[in-house]
Write a structure and sequence with these properties.
The chain is mostly beta strands. It folds into three domains: 7-115 and 380-439, Beta Barrel (conserved putative lor/sdh protein from methanococcus maripaludis s2 fold), CATH 2.40.420; 133-281, Muramoyl-pentapeptide Carboxypeptidase, domain 1 (Orthogonal Bundle), CATH 1.10.101; 284-364. The protein has four helices and 24 strands. It has helices at 82-88, 201-212, 226-238, 329-337, and strands at 7-9, 40-42, 48-50, 69-71, 109-111, 113-128, 133-136, 157-159, 166-167, 172-176, 179-185, 253-255, 259-264, 275-281, 285-291, 303-307, 313-321, 348-354, 367-385, 389-391, 397-402, 410-421, 424-428, 437-439. The longest helix has 13 residues, at 226-238. Residues 199-247 form the Peptidoglycan binding-like domain. It comes from Streptomyces pseudovenezuelae. Residues 310-341 have a biased composition (Low complexity). Residues 1-63, 93-128, 308-350 are annotated as: Disordered.
């Protein structure tokens, strides 16, 4: 951030110790008898208020009318009509004749504290099992009778899992003619017939899975040789298949890891064709449709706090950031008809977070959650409430430091601003230390 969320201007002691004079309220368009433009600072909304002196002991000059007010920069708009301001009470004071007593210090204070500031954004997310995928019957495959795992009218489904079942490496996904079709872990499906003499990434996936399942006598590399074929024959025997030593598409289903069956779309006694079942990952994840304007807050590895419906929290880590997507053409057309043609406002970024502490998610299988993304953090900095900032004449900000030895009990100390977070702002300046007492706007 580059501007404070909330600043305020406070009256300063007059040169020579003169008490402040009464505030004269004039309606918009009425000229003052004593022009004061050289002592006023323009506010964010275009109005004017008295400026805090850039130096504490400013040379003498014409008298100033005191004004104590607080404004929220970037949000509040200063009303131009002086009569309207007076009616709303923003100006404070009254038009009564007579001098008021000089201030002896701020009416409210806070201490400069040393802390960690974290810039974050809280967005909505959902607990679930991630993106679902469909297991399709593979046509023309199978090394057994008619082709286990094949379709095209060959074979009959003799077993399918139930919704809610978890299938791990080597576990049966479905059976055709009482021949199992196991799950293997990998990044690409088996797309060709593999036999001795072949090589490639699919061979490497096959051999790595055979090793993980306890078969040996071969080297798990990317070359299919006689030793690999022997291990395959042993594997086929355990699956109640013909021992050919050759692997074809449909002999196994390849997925990235263990899977949880969410729906079964095929029935036993039918030919294996089309979609057989739908499954997901076995671990719950948190998904977020992030507005594209917050894209800079996330990357793979970004940590986030997930707040559950019951108020509990767990930590999540971003594992995947998808490409931004816009509204559909139909939605865009509707928006255009309604006068809103800016589709960028509808763009979202699919983000997935892994939650290592699955037990911390409780029994929630599907629930809405709040996800707090941390974009920046600064440790061991000095910070004050944002409403302790005072706008300085000529630009910049100061703190109203409580100092009994100073005139009227305060001294305005210029400060450099840093990070803004949680209604606090990082500050640094001469004499500003932990525990320094400063004035704040009520």
């Amino acid at each position: 951030m580059t501007a404070p969320d909330d600043t305020h201007e406070r009256e300063s002691a007059r040169p020579g110790g003169d008490p402040p004079g009464p505030l004269e309220v004039r309606a918009s368009g009425v000229l003052a008898t004593e022009p004061e433009t050289d002592t006023a600072v323009q506010t964010a909304g275009g109005g004017h208020g008295p400026a805090v002196p850039a130096e504490e002991n400013q040379a003498g000059g014409r008298k100033r009318h005191p004004l104590r007010t607080s404004l929220i920069v970037l949000v509040a708009i200063v009303v131009a009509a002086a009569a309207g301001l007076a009616a709303s009470g923003v100006l404070g004071g009254s038009g009564d004749d007579g001098a008021s007593e000089a201030p002896t210090g701020p009416s409210a204070t806070a201490k400069v504290k040393r802390t960690t500031l974290t810039d974050s954004e809280t967005v909505s997310g959902n607990i679930g099992y991630g993106e679902a995928s469909t297991v399709q019957a593979v046509s023309g495959g199978g090394s057994g009778q008619g082709g286990a795992g094949g379709s095209g009218g060959s074979g009959i489904l003799t077993w399918v899992p139930k919704a809610g079942d978890t299938i791990t490496r080597g576990g049966n996904v479905y059976s055709v003619n009482q021949q199992k079709t196991p799950l293997l872990y990998g990044s690409i499906p088996f797309y060709r017939t593999m036999r001795s003499g072949d090589s490639g990434s699919d061979v490497k996936i096959l051999e790595a899975n055979l090793k993980a399942l306890g078969y040996d006598g071969f080297t798990a590399d990317s070359t299919y040789n006689a030793a690999t074929a022997a291990a395959v024959q042993e594997w086929q025997d355990d699956l109640n298949r013909e021992e050919t030593g050759v692997v074809v598409p449909g002999d196994a289903v390849v997925a990235s890891g263990a899977r949880k069956v969410s729906a079964v779309q095929a029935s036993t006694g039918t030919a294996p064709s089309g979609p057989l079942l739908i499954w997901t990952a076995t671990e719950r994840v948190v998904t977020v449709e992030l507005e594209a304007q917050y894209e800079d807050l996330v990357e793979v590895g970004t940590r986030a706090k997930v707040t559950l419906p019951d108020g509990g929290t767990v930590e999540g880590t971003v594992t995947d950031v998808g490409a931004p997507s816009n509204v559909s053409d139909d939605q865009s057309g509707d928006a255009a008809d309604a006068g809103g043609s800016d589709s960028d406002k509808e763009a979202t970024l699919p983000v997935e977070l892994r939650v290592k502490d699955q037990k911390g998610l409780g029994d929630y299988q599907a629930a809405s959650v709040d996800v707090t993304l941390e974009s920046e953090s600064r440790k061991n900095v000095l910070a004050v409430p944002v409403n302790a900032l005072v706008a300085r004449n000529g630009g910049g900000y100061a703190l109203e430091v409580v100092k009994p030895s100073a005139p009227h009990g305060v001294e305005y100390v210029p400060v450099k601003l840093g990070m803004f977070a949680d209604s606090l702002v990082e500050v640094s300046g001469a004499g500003i230390t932990e525990g320094t007492v400063v004035g704040v706007a009520k």
